[in-house]
User: What shape does this take?
Amino acid sequence: MVSPRAKRAATEHLIATMGVWVRFACRVVGLSRSTFAVPHPDQTPEDADARLRTWLCANAKKHPRWGYRRAHHDARAQGWVVNHKKTQRLWREEGLGVPQRRRRKRVGASTAAGQVRAVSPDHVWGIDFQFDRVEDGQALKVCSIIDEHTRESLGGLTGTSITGERVITLIDQIATVRGYPLVLRSDNGPEFVCDAVADWAKNRIGLAFIPPGTPGTTDTSNRSTPASATNASTSTVSTRCSTPRS
Assistant: This one.
């Protein structure tokens, strides 16, 4: 939801940069003309809260991890006569807020030693995901497994949700025919770095996770997956996902 203050700023920007009429700018932004005509309290010389606004901005800069509640207690301690509702309103109008901590992405622990290069068939398998959407907009995941030495497509999965357990089942099915590879290479996707995959691979194969920020190192891509297989799987799942639910 866009605040009236942000809409007012957008309207002023349209008028200044494009030279449109106020009526047109207000209609485009969705702001009432009467609201635009009345100046905001913090833009008028008689703004009674100008000093408190300045203090709140300085306090937020000094304590970036504090919210409006701690700022309100500090303001009361320093003699400001203000209730918490007003502090919260001014805090929001000034665009202040506690920055959200970025969640650190989990990185897999490689068990294969050094930089592994495939030197023979079934030495290194690469596994990766491609993403698409079906007709109704639902996300679609395509899991591909190839032999990095022969460039042979060994198998794959297609679905709206593919977990680490399903990946393990797929690899076990392929291994019943070809045996397990020495190394399985993948990126740091949650399906590959989960505990289930780590426990399963402990006494079977080595895991080689590519460093974060280096896409394409798994040697699996759309051109590594047979187009006929991908199209067939996509059309099957697309039909299933597009069927209206009763």
Observations:
- Confidence is low (pLDDT under 50) at residues 221-246.
- The chain has ten helices and five strands.
- The chain has two domains: 4-93, 124-242.
